[in-house]
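User: Hey, quick favor. My workstation is busy. Could you predict this chain's structure for me?
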Amino acid sequence: MLSLRQVFKEGVRGMMKTETFRALVVDKGDTGLVAAVKPLTVSDLPDEDVLIQVDYSTLNYKEGLGFANRNKIFRILPIVPGLDLAGTVVESKSCRYKPGDPVILNGWSVGERYWGGYAQMARIKSDFLIPLPKGMDTLKAMYIGTAGYTAMLCVMTLEQAGVTPDGGPVVVTGAAGGVGSNAVAILAHLGYDVTALVSARKAFTHDFLRELGAKAFVGGDKWAQTPSPLESQRWAGAVDTVGTTVLARVISEMNYGGCVAACGLAGGIDLSLTVMPFILRGVSLRGVDSVWCPYERRVAAWERLAKDIPDAALKKINRIIKLDEVPHYAAQIMAGKVVGHIVVDVNA
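Assistant: No problem, here it is.
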C-alpha cells in the first residue's frame, strides 16, 4: 500500500477512491463509547468540498471530555474526533483552495458535530479552513494548535483592552496546560511580567514554566476559596483557563482598569462574584471564543503566531504521540497528568 504522501506526490489521486487510510473512530459500544483505529476509504468521509491529506492534529482538554463521555462533546456517532488539523489540499470544489495548498483548521465544532483531524485524510468545509501562514510548516502549526491559537486570541484581547507590558504583572491560570503554557510563552516574548498559577500538585512544573518566561508563581488553598468582593490589587491583566472560584478571585484582585480574558472552564462553569470590581475598579471581563471566531480575526491571530511565539518555547511545550495513543493520553489529560500540549502524528 502506498503511503498517502506518496499518493499525493505521485499524483495518483484515482487510487485514493479505493486505497485505505487510518482513522480513529469513536462509536457506541455495549457499555459506552468505543474508540478504535480503523481502515477507511475516501468514500467513507463526509461529503464536504475540500479533501485534505492530514499531517498532524492535536489532543486537547475538550477531546479529553469527549473520550470520557462527558459534556456531550461528541454530538454525532460514529465520529472521527480531532478539533484541529494541518495538511495539504488534495481535491477542492472551492475557489478558495486548490490542490497543493497547505491549510489549517481550528474550531467550528469539527470533532464534535463534524468529522475531524484524527485521520490521514479528511473532508472539510472550505469555510472552516485558513491558509497556512508563510514561514510555518504543518508541524509548527500543530505545535501551536488550537491551544496556541486560543492563547493568542487572549493576548490580542488584553492588548485591545489597553493592557501593556509596562502596566504591571499579568497572571495566567492553569498555566501548565496547553492554552496556559502557550499564553505564558507569548506574553513573556512580548515583554510582559508573567505570573503563573498552577495547582499544588503541579508545583513540579515551575522549572518548565520558568523556561517559557514565567517570572513568579501563585497557588495554594485560597484559590479554592470564595474571595472577598474586593481583594488587594495585584494584576494588570489575566488569561483565565479555569473559571469558577479561580476566575472569581482573579477578578477580585485586578488592578484598576484591568482586563481578564476568559477562555476556559477546566475548573467548572459556575462563577460567583459581585459587581464591585466592575463598578469600583473599572475591571473588564472579556470572553474569548476560538470555535466560532470570524475568519479575519482567526487569520490575524495565526499571522501573529508565525512571529510572536518562539520556536524554542514550542519545542518545550509539545510532545508528539501516535494516533493509537490518543485515548490513553486523553485519559491522562482528564487525570491532570499532562503538562504542556500534545500533537498527534496521524501518519505514525
